[in-house]
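Hey forum,

I'm writing up a methods section and want to include a predicted complex as supplementary material. The small molecule is NAP. I've pasted the protein sequence and the SMILES. Can someone with a working setup run it? I'll credit the forum in the acknowledgements.
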Amino acid sequence: MRAIQIDRYGGPEVMIRRDLPIPRPGPGEVLIRLAWSGINFMDIHTCQGKYAGSRTYPVRVPTTIGMEGAGTVAALGDGVTEFQLGDRVAYCLSWGSYADYAIVAAWRVVPVPEAMSLDLAAAAMFHGLTAHYLAHDLGQFGPGVTALVHSASGGIGQLLVQLGARLGATIYATTSSEAKAEVARQRGAAAAFLYDEGRFADRTRELTGGRGVDVVFDPIGRPTLRDSLRAARTKGLIVSFGSVGGSVKDLDPIELGEAGSLFLTRPRLADHLDDAATIRRRAAEIFAALLDGSLSIAIAGRYTLDDVEQAHAALEDRRMIGKPLLQLS
Ligand SMILES: NC(=O)c1ccc[n+]([C@@H]2O[C@H](COP(=O)([O-])OP(=O)(O)OC[C@H]3O[C@@H](n4cnc5c(N)ncnc54)[C@H](OP(=O)(O)O)[C@@H]3O)[C@@H](O)[C@H]2O)c1
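Reply by user p_vandermeer:
Happy to help. Structure tokens for the complex are below, copy them as they are.
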């Protein structure tokens, strides 16, 4: 089978295309013949070695990159009773999806509804399940809740805005361009504006009558996090769920006190997908919303194993609006 592996950490040059034997599933595992893999920032971070010392994501070289996919069950390991050969399935947070086949622990795998295409299922898992826990468990979106969503035209951002609007929350959105802001408005943001060198915080306060929002979702980090503190209400919540713009390494907790006794969390998806029932519940809710039309995912591009570097470059250059996919078998 074809696969893209890394043996060392670095830029796009560390990705090597290889022909490998089709692996065999061990006990509790399934072999999936992949139709589609999601392409995510996390794949770039994996190549860069961002998880080299992580306990949450213990992915080490050599490895096949990619950690999200959809396809059909091609073989079952001992003890797997919940799936049959040929079942249409999807998963995320298991490395090895830039390949024709992947081995995945059965508890991480969810069935894909008959009416859902496999490309949409692949696009929905990682970003959909992330947006689900951010909106429900952390933001507690509902009527009366106000939130600020940064990078609102990104894969997670677009879903967070839609979930917020659907659940009755008021969502303010930031982006790096007017074209991206328009995407956020179309997804249901009450207002969308540019980061404007941190002045998004003043704009957010104006829009909330000086109060600030209940919760800020910040996947960017260093360029925005301190101003995100200024955008939150007293005793509000800052959800720092990524650092695509670089890490904040010098935050003194007293800054949270000065900003109004704020709560700051750095959550990870793995801790919100810690058993099969939770994964199935979150995926079923996201799939149902996609099928009834109340959520939608824009596929930003379809790539192959020969041109996947172009997708990584577009992600890094902030040219991607929506979700890129990798086509396999
Ligand atoms: N904690 C969790 O559970 C969790 C789960 C999934 C992903 N994440 C993290 O969330 C972040 C976003 O992931 P994603 O998959 O949603 O990506 P994405 O959809 O591709 O969104 C990335 C967006 O980030 C914005 N951005 C700001 N600064 C950037 C920079 N220096 N370089 C590139 N993009 C920048 C861009 O929007 P603008 O141009 O509008 O700024 C870009 O569209 C990543 O850090 C990822 O690791 C965290």
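Some notes you might quote in the supplement: Residues 40-42, 45, 127, 130, 151, 153-156, 175-176, 180, 219-220, 241-245, 267-269, 315-316, 318, 320 surround NAP (CB under 6 Å). Residues 131 and 160 are 5 Å apart (CA to CA).
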